[in-house]
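Why do we care about 3D structure at all? Because function follows from shape, and shape follows, mostly, from sequence. That is the central idea of this module. The next example makes it concrete: a single protein chain, its amino acid sequence, and then its structure expressed as tokens.
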Amino acid sequence: MDHQKQKPLVVAITGASGSVYGLRLVQAVTELGLPITLTFSRAAGLVIYEEHGVKIDVKDPSCISQLFSPELIPLISYYPEYEMTAPIASGSYPSRGMVIVPTSTTCFAKVANGISESLIERAAECMIKEGRKLVIVPRETPLSVIHLENLLKLARVGVKVVPAIPAFYSGAQQMDELIDFVVGKILDQLEIPHALYRRWVGGRGEVTSPVQDPEEEKNA
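And the structure:
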């Protein structure tokens, strides 16, 4: 498969907790042989250090070599978040869509209100105006009315909101499996085939009768 002939997936990692979701997404997509155009916010660099113990300079494109295995690096194009001349700052740049994962509340508030202060928001703005797929993965709890209103505004213009909420029906036993569930749900939104989690095919138990109305039971 010639990745140079494929449209890349744009991925942005912001400063919300849960950087592992973004890093795992990049790994999973590139392992499928698909190219990634990647950017980190400054705050993402701080979170990656706190959560993974890896200190990176997000202004330096070579920082990706500290996070991903050498065989995946050729599939990743990296641009710092304030490089507004990057290709993804233009709607004319072809892509299969964009994922912001995890998405900080500040980031999705700016996107929802058309404020493009960095490459991340500008790329997201381009996805919306060009009618391309945009997936945001908020990881915050509890959500305030302000957060919910911003998410609703995005959902109304076609943005897919995929909260970083794992499910447990797959029988996951390890943290990696819970992470893969969320990453798999992101890939589902992009229609990228994968086998990251076991899909629901029905329950184990027998179908039981619904609870009978007390009046009906009395008159039976």
